[in-house]
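My hope is that you will study the record closing this message with an eye to the fold:
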Amino acid sequence: MTAASAEPRERWTQLAILALGTLLAMAPSFSGAAVAPLLREEWTVGALELPFLTVVVQLGFAVGAIGLAAIGAPDVVPGPRLFAAGALLAAVANLGFGLVATDPGSAVPFRLVTGAALAAAYPVAMMLAAGWFRRERGLAIGVVNGALTVGVALPLLFRAVGAYAGLDWRAVIVAASVAAVAGAILVGVFVRPGPLEVRAPRFSPSIAAAAFREPSVRLASLGYFGHMWELFAMWTWVPIFLLASFTAAGQA
């Protein structure tokens, strides 16, 4: 068997569906940030309460990722099913944020669950993409990563459309949840685990601690932590810079 024939024929179709599903599934993640200016007018909030609604999603994601690794769920549950379950749970939790929460305190549990549920979507999507590619695996992972980047910005698009239509912030949250449900259906129904997928060993806290004691692993991890910090900071500040630029140019 040649290297070319070893590449699955369906890999590009599967990647396209997986990327679109990931894009839609990640919509609930930044929905709180997208409607924050409207929440500030409707809820009585302090200076740090609304930003914390975004931070808590990331905390939930970290907790969810560690929890899934600890119980070995990705090694037992088929990837498409796990992705679909995570996206559906994120959609439901996001709806709770939009339709049930009445202040930042009551919104925090919904945002935390949203982040934890999405830990079953994006990392699993990368695993599924890797299972369909050998030579172009880096490209496939990059496509999924790009889908994540566009997906977390979807609520901002929904907010812009909603502003022109005169809709309140709850419509934006509902739209993000609908997108996540669509992503769950796409991946859960049309994506299959690839023939090149390799099951990872079960998570071991002792092995993880031993690896972190290695200077190279520790420095790489700390560097990645810093990268994520500046990445999310950039996503937060770029719209503010653009708004200030438009204002300085005399545009509303």
